[in-house]
Amino acid sequence: MRVTLPNPALILSLPLLLALAACDNSASISYDHATPAIQVSAEGEVSLAPDMAVLNLTVLREAATAEEAMAANSSAMAEVIAAMRAGGIEERDLQTAGLNIQPVYHYPKRTQGERPAPRITGYRVQNSLTVRVRDIDRVGAILQKSVDLGVNQGGNIQFTNDDPSEALAQARARAVKAARAKAETLAEAAGVELGDILTISENSYRPGPIPVARASMAMADEAAAVPVAAGENTYRVTVNMGFSIDQ
Fold first, then answer.
1. What is the C-alpha to C-alpha distance for residues 38 and 15, in angstroms, rounded to an integer?
2. Starting at the edge strand that comes first in sequence, how are the strands of the sheet with 153-160 ordered?
3. Tens digit of each residue's pLDDT (9 = 90 or more) over 177-203
């Protein structure tokens, strides 16, 4: 009986595979009888100073009737929107984020083991406005102005980038470079030659607007703008690459 032995150059021992896996749990070597391959993953990232802030401003008003609450809310929000426009905020950067009308209930105390049915004592209207501010230095002043005009909820400040494509491209290039270097290290450790790229894919992470600060609408200091700090946004790209093994 004839026994055909596999090519010794293609045999990777189990101890070697385990040792390589222990070095980096994001990299692995896989192969089959048809195409021996090395597969790796690597990440690249780039940090970028934000160039735009997204504010969420909410006007909350309560009144005895829904009509009165809506009228009071609409009047206050109209002043806020007019002030934003007068301050140079473009129409494309102003967007109503939500309008909510709810009854306000009074829940009587339980008497003789029974709780009376709740009754409506008024109505609450919330109107939220999303404002994109393309001049970071104006964020504090715009927040303060909105408080002066009646905004009494929200104040969430989110910093982002209008066009992060260049940062993502740089992160992508760094990830590919790191993946190739990792594959070369694995090939050298395994005693084989790295071949052509067989597969490549990516997963990108766009931080989007990242909440980094919250302003207290009720306690804002009227004498100065609300202090804010923009920080940086980090964009990440993970690439998965498969390389053939030259025989």
1. 17
2. 94-106, 119-133, 52-63, 153-160, 210-214
3. 999 999 999 999 999 999 999 999 999
